[in-house]
Design goal:
- There is one protein chain.
- α1 crosses α4 and α3 crosses α5.
- 26% of the residues lie in helices and 27% in strands.
- The strands form 2 sheets. Strands 1, 2, 3, 4, 6, 7, 8, 9, 10, 11 and 12 form an 11-stranded mixed beta sheet that branches. A two-stranded antiparallel ribbon has the order 5-13.
- It has 299 residues and is of the alpha/beta class.
Length: 299
Amino acid sequence: MKPTLVILAAGMGSRYGGLKQIDGVGPNEEPIIEYAIYDAIRAGFGKIVFVIRKDIEAAFKEKFAGKLDGKVEVAYVFQEKDSFVPAGVATDYREKPWGTAHAMLVAAPEVHEPFAVINADDHYGAEAFQTIHRFLTQDCTPTRHAMVGYVLHNTLSDHGTVNRGVAATEDGYLSGIVERLKIGHRNGSVSFLDDDATPHELSVNSVVSMNFWGFHPDILRQTEELFHEFVHATAGQPKTEFLIPEVVDHLIRTGQARVSLLTSDERWYGVTYQEDKPLVMAAFKELLAKGVYPHDLWS
């Protein structure tokens, strides 16, 4: 059975100022997500699950109308703030849905085989899709998952701060992962900010999560259990987020899973800020010139 690719595309894009998930960066207005799908199909994935919001459904379906027919199975699921919330629990205090682990959970009805998870607005590179495909088809088990990690200095934005899960490793496996917020260049070094806005330096060679994961579908049951606990524990807090790195870290610490670290030296490209777009467009222009991608992806 071919693995599935779950694409997290329900974000608000508040820092970008628009629907960055399908904003064109290629010569025919292809968004980053389209190159990821192309890489995934070439690697051997058999299904794409888009996690989106209901209010952007029409725009998404228009962007991909006809392009993927006959090439891969496609499904859409909707992440809203009441999705998978336990019965009787109020969500009116929430400003938006619950974060990346919640988004992954929303895809559960469409996922029945080992699957990968990516962000819609990040470019990971063809080699990374081939690597995670090998893992999902050869090594994935109910207690063994994987993360494709990237070197921190290859994942920073020149136009603002980013959030990254910083990995700790032991013998090729994750031993833990800690979400660090507002990572950026400050006073000649790279640092993150703690809750008191105090900067703490990070090594530019740290391995970080770009939300590129390979999971056995059993993790979705565990994620739902943890999500229900999280919802009750954070009731009344409008901005708390239920994140994939935190779910993974919990499963590692409690001995419920081992997570292989599959590293990539590829340069990350993404559109966190509107100012990132010209650099990403230039990067794809270079990739096309090198023959990494054809001018027309689907011809």
